[in-house]
Amino acid sequence: MAASIIDGKAFAARVRAKVAAEVSALSRDHGLIPGLAVVLVGEDPASQVYVRSKGKQTVEVGMQSFEHRLPVDISEAELLNLIVKLNADPEIHGILVQLPLPSHVNSELVVNAVDPAKDVDGFHISNVGLLGTGQKAMVPCTPLGCLMMLRDHHDSLSGMDAVVVGRSNIVGKPMAQLLLGDSCTVTIAHSRTRDLPAVCRRADILVAAVGRPEMIPGDWVKPGATVIDVGINRIERDGKTRLVGDVHFESATKVAGAITPVPGGVGPMTIACLLANTLTAACRANGLPEPEGLTA
Ligand code: GUN
Q1: pLDDT by residue (tens digit) across 136-167?
Q2: Which of 172, 201, 203 is nearest to 188 (CA)?
Q3: Which of 70, 85, 153, 274 allows an S-S link to 74, with CB 3.0 to 4.6 Å?
Q4: Does ligand 1 have an atom closer than 6 angstroms to the CB of 272?
Q5: How is the chain split into domains, by residue range?
Q6: CA of 226 to the centre of ligand 1 (A)
Q7: What is the pTM of this model?
Q8: How far apart are CA 175 and CA 51, in angstroms?
């Protein structure tokens, strides 16, 4: 039987609707409007598309959007100065510095200059540490979106075998922490893993986050497993540019119990979770209870 398709586009729309309802209540009951600042350095076309999309969706859920577009040759000191100002601005509850930054800027320094309470990307070393020790943190958006979809699909993740393929700081490592937090038995696999097919075949939950087009074929998938495909890879096929995941969808869908498609799976969840994180940050900053179902 073919796998059920986890519709990330529809799920993201539900998350945004929930955020919008909470934002409306915050404004009505507390006169509080969550604000998100996005900082974009340079003219990278892909980054520009993301930033425009973030700004649009932020406004659509009733939050304030502040965009800072800076020239590619801005100095590190000027960028750090801007972060200091955004940290101090009470109208801003979330700060996102679009990555990658130009090579003359130390990204780590910039990311760690953001107030951890406003770090809606969850990249600050304090948030990484809080997540790793099972404390309340700001959680990176893409793994948070994956967790939400998994929780929606399963009554409980407790005791499940989860394999995360990919060990990036943005997806693989935080994803593993979140799954551990939900009491999965977690393996992080990567390019040096011995017998990767066998490791993947153990997984009740298989998360692919390697950035290699269609690397994981259906015969690496345990029958009935839930497959979360984080990959967004552009390839040329039949003279056309196509988006494919890290999983070979056609073969995997014949074996898996449930699978996220590309496009329309994990992708749309990322910005929805950015909005959720901004709402969470605004609630925490004002000592208000945080919304249910939008956090780890
Ligand atoms: N560039 C690509 N993905 C991301 C992301 O999730 N956050 C930031 N800040 N930059 C990115």
Answers
A1: 999 999 999 999 999 999 999 999 999 999 99
A2: 172
A3: 70
A4: no
A5: 31-125, 141-268
A6: 25
A7: 0.97
A8: 23
